[in-house]
Design a protein that fits this description.
heterotrimer; A mainly alpha; B mainly alpha; C alpha/beta; B: mainly alpha; 11 helices; 71% helix; globular; C: alpha/beta; Rossmann fold; six-stranded mixed sheet; four-stranded antiparallel sheet; 10 helices
């Protein structure tokens, strides 16, 4: 068991170090793609806490992302140091999730899904109605960094990768610890879990907050990276759906599934989007339908299945 | 009296919302599927009415029939080919599936019809109804009456026909219905088809009121959600109550706070209601 | 009389207009095995749900070890040492047998670490004779094994009061004997037990005292043989005509 733990952390450190070094040789385009993969992986890893471990179908990712982006962007325009704006974007989203969780985590199934879906819409409208602070529907310009284009590409990649590393480390702790076990119990039978002494509400809240904090920080980084945000962009419903698709692609409730899913989704996007410019949403739709019907447990399950068959043969 | 006018506007809106939500509620209640496609179904119904009026001169009120038939066939096929395969799977799976299908349908409409807003401009509009200070455009009133009639038709269908009784049986207990000889998968497909039919017919009616564009699908879907949660799931009277409640709220709330806040208002109400009373205004316990 | 472990005072649970539990006042002494019987729909399971906080009491008071638990959440009540099994078994199907029991030890049994919880769970599995199945998924067990898994899970919670809801329903007679043996051994270890049971044989053979529920009300209480021959109980089970006949025959 202890050896297992050490192996995991060594693999983690080596993996992150390799990721930090490799794309730098690929030029700015590769770095941009790598930054996007890292961001997607953060979103997917975060969703996995609430959607994968606790099996609560959350569509609140866009709300957390947009909220983090706006908190961070507004603070940046007020001259708050950059890193602090990201941290506060993450904490703001987490705090919001804690309150929101209190209101909607007693709902189950579809009701929870809808309630979480609607939150982003309400926030978007709120932004639209506060133009003095947030720029409203016209969007908000974020101060540019004093760096060359190449430096920026590296900077944002490493920032996003660091965020991903933190989210993955948190996931490893949760998966192996008491809280991950509690969430497994809740996933399989919430009522029975309570009777066994599991404080379901506390653990669900924890999972929901974890599904927000890194997403909020990622939103903040995204705002700095793109230098301009508007409500339609950062509260886009696809931001809530893509994490789910990535986790389904990679494998629900697994540690590496979200990362694998992030890679595949971005690869698909790059190939499909470029070739079917006007039909990219439909292409994503076809992928989703095929996934749900043929691979509901994700590609990781397919890989495991193949490995098992090889092992037997 | 501005309030009488607002009340009248709210009731007209509410009748239309009932028709928008009835099919959605039926599918949710019977199949336990949240049909994300519903908004696109409505838009497709509107397009059918638009083109039939533009090229064949068919009045949108009559286009209810072809729009309903086309959408029924589409809904039946989608359920048979795709959704039936995972209909008993957890929420996440069915929701994701209909979301994926919606991406395809909505994108196809965007490519075929573009995002430009279109509108049916009737050559001979009905005269407006004026009662004292209250003014209601005739076509809007007629659309509302037809919408309520459609909703009532669905109610009678569920209560009085063999198919309706089979649908209700599946809603109550899928396994028991299957043991009693009900072809559950076939009933699922018919139910989903009827849900789509209602959406298509409502879309045809709405074509003379709302601008038509694939972009509007999420707006209609949002309304259907709110109405369902307000009225309770899977019940036709619930859709009517929820529709009227939402219509009145938007009309009065829009006046009090400004029309640009009506969407926020309805979604905030939805969150509040889910918080305090997830079973809806009529208090029927919803399906999980 | 030994000190009371659990006291119910006028406990009531309504569902809409229906009183599923109606003014039940009873006390359970430390270390006793008490049987709870009653016809179908008498409110036995609801009473357990009310005590464990799943369906909180709508009136009355529940006191456990001197502490008012009427308004506490199920997981808090579980942590205080009140465990129950379910009539319809509720394992975590995708987890192994060991993991199922570990959950009870970790969250309510006060095990400080995952490892300690696993060790405690293994002991319970040996106690209930499931050790050989520890690494199987819970969904692969037979009904009798699942009932024992329920027992092992609730024992892992280190309960002071264990409520067994029909642990013998659906078992054949040799399986029932095995289960009875386990119940006796649990009692011998000092755990107070409330047995909800349909099978009279089981109730009579383990209970020191019996309480009877009918339409949510407590209609009889006392030594098993005496309770079962009281007219009110016979009437509740068999209807008034049969009760009259027995009373007439006896008198």
């Amino acid at each position: 068991m202890t050896r297992n733990v050490i192996t995991t952390w060594i693999a983690f450190a080596v993996g992150i170090a390799l990721c930090a070094v490799l794309p730098i040789f690929g030029g700015n385009y590769t770095l941009r793609l790598a930054t996007t993969v890292a961001m997607y992986a953060v979103l997917a890893q975060s969703w996995n806490f609430i959607g994968g471990l606790a099996a609560y179908p959350s569509f609140a990712t866009a709300a957390f992302f947009g909220l983090g982006a706006y908190i961070s962007a507004v603070l940046q325009t007020k001259g708050v140091p950059l890193y602090w704006t990201w941290v506060l974007g993450g904490l703001g989203a987490a705090l919001f999730a804690a309150f929101l969780g209190g209101a909607i985590l007693h709902l189950r199934g579809h009701y929870f899904a809808i309630a979480s879906l609607v939150v982003a819409e309400v926030l978007r409208e709120l932004i639209n109605t506060t133009p003095d602070l947030t720029g409203g529907g016209m969007g908000l310009n974020v101060p540019a960094l004093k760096m060359s284009v190449g430096e920026q590409a590296q900077f944002f990649y490493h920032a996003m990768l660091a965020l991903f590393a933190i989210s993955l480390a948190t996931a490893i702790f949760v998966h192996r610890g008491k809280s991950g076990f509690a969430l497994q119990c809740i996933k399989q039978n919430e009522d029975a879990a309570s009777i066994l002494g599991v404080n379901a509400y506390a653990y669900k809240s924890l999972a929901f907050v974890l599904s927000a904090v890194f997403v909020g920080a990622a939103g903040g980084m995204y705002a700095t990276w793109t230098r301009y945000i508007d409500p339609t962009d950062v509260f886009d419903v696809l931001l809530s759906v893509k994490p789910l698709v990535m986790v389904l692609l990679g494998g629900v409730g697994t540690l590496l599934g979200p990362v694998v899913g992030a890679f595949i989704l971005l690869a698909l996007e790059e190939v499909v989007w470029r070739n079917f410019l006007t039909m990219h949403a439909a292409a994503l739709g076809v992928i989703i339908v095929a996934l749900v019907l043929y691979l509901p447990n994700g590609l990781m399950s397919l890989v495991r299945e193949i490995a098992r068959r090889r092992g037997r043969a | 009296m501005i309030y009488l006018q607002l009340l009248a506007n709210g009731i007209v809106l509410g009748g239309l919302y009932a028709a928008i939500a009835a099919g959605f509620s039926l599918v949710w209640g019977v199949l336990n599927v949240i049909n994300i496609l519903h908004g696109s179904f409505i838009v497709l119904g509107s397009y059918i009415a638009f083109f039939l009026y533009a090229y064949a001169g068919l009045h949108p009120f009559l286009a209810i029939v072809p729009a309903g038939i086309v959408l029924f066939a589409l809904g039946w096929a989608l359920q048979t080919v795709f959704i039936n395969r995972v209909v008993t799977a957890p929420v996440l799976i069915t929701l994701t599936l209909t979301f994926g299908l919606d991406l395809v349908l909505n994108n196809a409409m965007l490519v075929a019809f573009t995002a430009d807003y279109r509108k049916v401009n009737l050559a001979t509009p009905l005269p407006a109804l004026e009662l004292g200070s209250v003014f209601i455009p005739g076509d809007k009133l007629a659309a509302m009456v037809l919408a309520v009639a459609l909703t009532y038709g669905l109610y009678r269908l569920l209560g009085d026909s063999n198919v309706g009784r089979a649908i209700v049986a599946v809603r109550m207990d899928r396994e028991a219905a299957s043991l009693m000889g009900v072809e559950v998968k076939q009933i699922n497909a018919i139910t989903f088809g009827i849900g789509a039919l209602m959406a298509g017919a409502a879309g045809a009616l709405l074509s003379i009121i709302y601008p038509i564009s694939p972009i509007n699908s999420t707006l209609f879907l949002g309304k259907a959600f709110v109405v369902c949660v307000l009225g309770g799931l899977g019940s036709v009277p619930g859709a009517l109550v929820g529709g009227l409640a939402l219509g009145l709220l938007e009309s009065l709330g829009g006046y009090a706070l400004g029309p640009e806040h009506s969407v926020t208002l309805s979604f905030s109400l939805l969150l509040l209601l889910l918080f305090v009373r997830p079973s809806g205004l009529l208090g029927r316990r919803g399906y999980e | 009389m030994r000190g009371a472990l659990l006291e119910l005072e006028g406990v009531e649970r309504r569902f809409g207009g229906l009183k599923a539990v109606d003014g039940v006042t009873v006390s359970i002494a430390r270390g006793e095995i008490i049987g709870l019987i009653g016809p179908n729909g008498a409110g036995k399971t609801t009473l357990i749900n009310t005590i464990t906080g799943v369906h909180p009491a709508t009136a009355g008071r529940i006191v456990f070890e001197g502490r008012d638990i009427t308004r506490l959440k199920p997981h808090v009540i579980a942590g205080l040492g009140l465990a129950r099994t379910f009539q319809i078994v509720q394992p975590f199907p995708a987890m192994t047998v060991l993991e199922n029991v570990t959950a009870g030890a970790l969250f309510a049994g006060g095990a400080p670490t995952m490892k300690a919880a696993q060790e405690a769970a293994m002991e319970r599995l040996e106690f209930t004779g499931l050790a050989a199945h520890a690494s199987k998924p819970a969904s692969t067990l037979t009904l009798a094994q699942r009932k024992r898994l329920e027992l092992a899970k609730s024992l892992a919670m280190k309960p002071r009061l264990l409520m067994l809801d029909e642990v013998n329903a659906g078992l054949n007679s040799s399986e029932v004997d095995d289960a009875l043996d386990i119940i006796r051994r649990i009692a011998a270890s000092g755990v107070t037990i409330l047995v909800v049971e349909h099978l009279m044989k089981v109730v009579l053979s383990v209970s020191q005292r019996i309480i009877v529920l009918h339409h949510g009300q407590l209609i009889a209480e006392g030594e098993p043989k005496a309770v079962l021959s009281s007219p009110a109980v016979i009437e509740a089970y068999l209807g008034s005509r049969y009760a009259d006949r027995i009373a007439g025959g006896a008198g």
